[in-house]
Amino acid sequence: MTATLAILAGGRGTRLGPLLCDLPKPMLPVAGRPFLEYLVEWAGRFGIDDIVLCVGFRAEKIRAHFGNGGGRIRYSAEREPLGTAGALRLALPLVRTDPFLAMNGDSFCPVELDALLRKHRDRRAAATLAVVETEDRSRFGSVEVGTGGDVLGFREKGAGAGRGWINGGVYALGKNVLERVAEGSSASIERDVFPGLVGRGLCAFGTPGPLVDIGTPESLEAAHGVVPGLLRRRSGP
C-alpha cells in the first residue's frame, strides 16, 4: 500500500525505573527485541515502505539501530518535547502522502492498516482513529462512537463504566488536520486536535485489538508474552 507512516518515537520511559529510563521508550526490550522493531515490522506486512520516525529523547540510539532501514526510514527530530500533535506537525514536510498514517511508538494495536486507510478515504474523513473495545472503559479515557462510525465525543479516565471503546493509538489523518497546529508549538493530538474535529469528519475504525502498551513495569512485563504472537496474525502484504 502507498502511504507514509509516522511513528511517534520521542518518548522517555520515566516510570520504568533507573535501568530503563535512559532509553527512548520505544527502544525498550520486549522478548529480546526493541519494541519499535515490532511496529516497523507490522508496517512492512502491509507493504509500507515510507516510515518517518518522530524522535526526540536519545534519538541517536534509534538512529544507530535502524539507520535508514534500507531506504524505508527517515527521521524528524524535535529539540524539545512537542507532544503528539506538535511532533507530527514538525514531521509534516517529510510526509509524502495525503492522507497518511500515524501511530504511537509506545503501544501496539494490530490494526489492519490497509482497511483503516480505506475507510478513511471512503468516508472522506478529516481523521480516523482505530478504537478497541474493552470490558472496563473506566480504566482508560474512552471514545464515544455512533452507530454510523462517527466519533461523538471523548470521556476522561474514570468517567463511565462497563464496556466501551478506547483509543488504539493508530490514525489515518489528512495533512490539513496537522497544518492547523502552530509550527514549533507543543500540542496533543488526543486533547487539542481530535475534540475539535467531533462533528467535522472524525471517524472511528473498530478493531479487535488487543492494545498493548509498555508505559509501566507491569505492562512492559506483560508485553513479552503477547507482542511476538501478534505479528503472526499477518504474514505479508
Task: Please describe what this structure looks like.
- 27% of the residues lie in helices and 25% in strands.
- With 237 residues, the chain is α/β, with parallel strands linked by helices.
- It has a single domain, classed as Spore Coat Polysaccharide Biosynthesis Protein SpsA, Chain A, CATH 3.90.550.
- Strand 4 (51-55), helix 2 (59-66) and strand 5 form a beta-alpha-beta unit.
- The chain is globular and about 45 Å long.
Count of helical stretches: 8
Give the topology string: H per helix, E per strand.
EEEHEHEHEEHEEEEHHEEHH
Q: For the terminal residues, how far apart are their CA atoms?
A: 8 Å
- The CATH topology: Spore Coat Polysaccharide Biosynthesis Protein SpsA, Chain A
- Poorly predicted regions: none
User: How would you sum up the major sheet?
Assistant: 9 strands, mixed
Q: For this structure, what is the CATH homologous superfamily?
A: Spore Coat Polysaccharide Biosynthesis Protein SpsA, Chain A
Under the CATH scheme, the architecture is Alpha-Beta Complex
Tally of distinct domains = 1
Structural class: alpha/beta
Let me know the number of strands. 13
Radius of gyration: 17 Å
Arithmetic mean of pLDDT: 92
Q: Which word captures the global form? A: globular
What percentage of the residues does DSSP assign to strands (E)? 25-35%
CATH classification class: Alpha Beta
Helix content: 25-40%
